[in-house]
Automatic annotation (TrEMBL):
InterPro entries: YjdM (IPR004624), YjdM_C (IPR013988), YjdM_N (IPR013987). Transmembrane segments: none annotated. It comes from Pseudohalioglobus sediminis. Coiled coil: none annotated. Residues 46-112 form the Protein YjdM C-terminal domain. This is Alkylphosphonate utilization protein. It comes from the Bacteria.
Length: 112
């Protein structure tokens, strides 16, 4: 029997496998096995097409994005230069001309 990974939320060692995913009985968190394997392999952040991103890359926005707290919108096709990858839900730090500093999700950009 292989060693199961601990829960990524509460670090509980009591996670178990259930129909293609892992479940934590202590906090109730569920995650896919593929996500756990990708985290173990140390895979990098990828764009919407699956291309790996790196610091300093240029990306293009693939969807209109509303700017929180403003009436501004980042339009489709906006090119963003010199991105920085960070940890978290919004994994790209950048500066967009006319708007300023922003955090973007990698699922809404493609590598330019």
């Amino acid at each position: 029997m292989s060693q199961l990974p601990p829960c990524p939320e509460c670090k509980s060692p009591y996670a178990y496998e259930d129909r293609g995913q892992y479940v934590c009985p202590e906090c109730g968190h569920e995650w896919r096995q593929a996500d756990a394997e990708a985290a173990d392999a140390g895979e990098s952040i990828t764009d919407a097409n699956g291309n790996p991103l790196a610091d300093g890359d240029s990306v293009t926005v693939i969807k209109d994005l509303k700017v929180k707290g403003s009436s501004a919108v980042v339009k489709v096709g906006t090119k963003v230069k010199n991105i920085r990858l960070v940890e978290g839900d919004h994994d790209i730090d950048c500066r967009i001309e006319g708007i300023g500093a922003m955090k973007l999700k990698s699922q809404f950009v493609k590598k330019a």
